[in-house]
Amino acid sequence: PKNDGITTEHVIKQIERGAKTSLDERAFLEKEIQKYLNSPIYHDICKAVDYYEGRQDILKHQRTVIGKDGSPIVVKNLPNERIIDNQYAKAVSQKQNYLCGKPFTMTSENDDYIKAVKPYFSRKFMRTYNSCVLDSVNTSIGYLHPYYDPEGKLRFKHFRTWEILPFWKDEEHTELDAFARIYQVQGYTGSTDKTWTLVDYYTLSGVKHYVY
User: Fold this and answer.
1) How far is the CA of 64 from the CAs of 56, 79, 82, 102, 157, in angstroms?
2) pLDDT digits (tens, 9 = 90+) for 54-90
3) Neighbours of 59 (CB within 10 A)
4) Nearest to 206 by CA among 25, 82, 8, 23
5) For the chain, what is the radius of gyration of the CA atoms?
6) From the DSSP assignment, how many helices (H) and strands (E) are in the chain?
């Protein structure tokens, strides 16, 4: 997973906000995050992302021979060629292009409606939507988060699949009760480079911020 750039001041604010929240909620989130990060679902998502980006198991392959005791031993004086022919990425991209190969087309009998909606489906939105579709094909689910910017304009952000821990309201997974976003950021403590793991907890009542 890639890190987002961030300042130390922002991290301190996250800590201060998290400290004002009940211990029960923080304990609940900590347990759920631990379970998620150790779950087969999280492992499969990370494996799918690695394979798509070319970090495949073949890179760990070692050339071996059978030793005197019958156990395999690594041979270091012979070539150990490891070639990645990423057919997996080609198949995923092919499905993505099939779904998103053409821009949106909008038709309506109400011209005013088209004028109001069309600005939201810009090239920038299409790039964001393409990333979401790629996650859907590659990891089985994609997250597109709507929000309002400081100027009150509706925006959309793509959340990467491995960062999101959903809490579903129903068994069919069609409606969310809440979700947590777990992500890493880099900053400085004095002159020391440091990485923090942050947690944003989204509920109907707002967003709470923690340092994990």
Assistant:
1) 19, 11, 14, 49, 47
2) 887 766 766 767 877 777 777 777 666 777 788 999 9
3) 10
4) 25
5) 22
6) 6, 9
